[in-house]
Amino acid sequence: MLDIMWSFDSAEEYLAWYHLLDAEDQDMADVLQRMIILETMDEMLEEVSDNYTDIKSYLKKFML
After folding, report:
1. With the C-alpha atoms ordered 15, 21, 22, 26, is the resulting torsion angle positive or negative?
2. Alpha carbon of 39 to those of 32, 47, 54, 59, 63: distances in Å?
3. H or E element that contains 63
4. What is the C-alpha to C-alpha distance for residues 4 and 13, in angstroms, rounded to an integer?
5. What is the maximal distance between C-alpha atoms in the chain?
6. Going by C-beta distance under 8 Å and a sequence separation of 6 or more, which residues neighbour residue 1?
7. What's the distance, CA 21 to chain centroid?
8. Which of 57, 5, 64, 62 is nearest to 30 (CA)?
């Protein structure tokens, strides 16, 4: 199912497909979509955290 979800080029295509699914498959699509969003957010937070650590160590050089 995830391969199908990745194949769409627009939200409109995804939604058209989503509305054709039965309730159980819609639930599965919802769960997969949330997992993708959470993973993306986790990756973004790691990048911010890494940058923050670098900035913090750089600023320590100027602390008195």
Report:
1. negative
2. 11, 13, 23, 30, 36
3. none
4. 11
5. 64
6. 25, 28, 29, 32
7. 23
8. 5
Alpha carbon distance 12, 54 (integer Å)? 40
> Do residues 1 and 25 lie in contact, with contact meaning Cβ atoms separated by under 8 Å?
yes
Amino acid at 50: D
Rounded to two decimals, the pTM is 0.69
Token representation of residue 51? 């940058």
- R_g of the chain computed on alpha carbons: 20
Find the length of the chain: 64
What is the four-CA torsion angle of 21, 24, 28, 30, rounded to 10 degrees? Answer: 70
Encode pLDDT of 7-58 as tens digits.
Answer: 999 999 999 999 999 999 999 999 999 999 999 888 887 777 766 777 777 7
